[in-house]
Amino acid sequence: MGTFKELFQAIPTDVFNTLTGVPISITYRVVDTVYTPGTGPVNTNIDYETRCIQDDITSLEIGNGMAKTEDVKLLIAATELEVIPKPKDQILFKERWHTIESITTDPADALWEVIARE
User: Fold this and answer.
1) Distance from chain centroid for Cα 37
2) Among 45, 53, 65, 98, which is least packed by CB within 10 angstroms?
């Protein structure tokens, strides 16, 4: 038996597996720029395949300036992604690239709530 944190982190993946057809396959892109002497900045993007569940942007998030009406909110299980999401990374969602604007998580770091903009 693992720690409570490990047990809580497993729950979103179990839910994703139970909700057949609901989770959406996405590509998560880590956007990084490395400076190379002689050539200057070079993009070194790394892509990861994962799943998410789309959630609705709330009027409170729009009213507080946290999101715009055209943004997307995606829920990603921490155990479903090999990296920790960060602003400026990108997500290929419904055949369009979106840039991450904000990320929140629960106290157990089991589920990431990502707001991204096209």
Assistant:
1) 32
2) 65
24-71 pLDDT per residue, tens: 899 999 998 888 888 888 888 999 999 999 999 999 999 999 999 999
Q: How far apart are CA 71 and CA 106, in angstroms?
A: 21
Indicate the SS3 state at residue 94.
Answer: coil
Contact 77, 48 (CB under 8 A): no
Query: Cα–Cα distances in Å, from 72 out to 5, 98, 114?
Result: 28, 8, 8
3-state secondary structure of 60: helix
| Count of Cβ atoms closer than 10 Å to residue 7 Cβ | 12
| 100 class by beta-carbon count within 10 Å (0-12 exposed, 13-18 middle, 19+ buried) | buried
